[in-house]
Amino acid sequence: MADQPQPKQINFTILPEEDSSAPRTYANFCSIAHTPFDFTLTFCEVMPLSEKEIRDAEADHIVRAPIRSRIVLPVQFIPTLIAALQENMRIFSESHQQPVPPGKGPVH
């Protein structure tokens, strides 16, 4: 029986390639949905409401916001994303010498 070669393991770091023409998209709301295979993050921009929009929202309990981006992530990626967000939040909080209060409002 011949010896099977072992698969070679390579460790590497992925760095985003800077592209000054890549657009930045602002969002101040994120809706999250999932399937057994992936998570979908839908980013929206919620603008201040007009008086009419406030009245409509009071009646319908719905505020429509334009979708700015929709990102689909494999389930296996989510724990790493959560850890990275928590670490960045910790660093942000320490660098501004104040704890960042937890978000208030609905979780989607």
Task: Give a description of the structure.
This protein is α+β, with helices and mostly antiparallel strands. It is built from two helices and three strands, in the order ββαβα. The chain has a three-stranded antiparallel sheet with strand order 1-2-3, with no helix packed on it. A hairpin with a 3-residue loop joins β1 and β2. The mean pLDDT is 87.
Features:
three-stranded antiparallel β-sheet, 2 helices, 108 residues, alpha+beta, elongated
Anisotropy-based shape: elongated
Measured as a percent range, the helix fraction is 25-40%
Number of helices: 2
Cα separation of the termini: 56 Å
Mean pLDDT, as a whole number?
Answer: 87
Computed CA radius of gyration, to the nearest angstrom: 21 Å
Give the amount of beta strand, in percent. Answer: 15-25%
Class derived from helix and strand content: alpha+beta
Number of strands: 3
Largest sheet: 3 strands, antiparallel
- SSE order, as H and E? EEHEH
Strand order of the largest sheet: 1-2-3
List low-pLDDT spans.
Answer: none
Quick overview:
The chain is of the alpha+beta class and 108 residues long. It is built from 2 helices and 3 strands; from the N terminus they run E-E-H-E-H.
What's the topology here?
Layout: E1 29-34, E2 38-44, H1 51-60, E3 67-74, H2 78-95
Antiparallel strand pairs: 1-2, 2-3
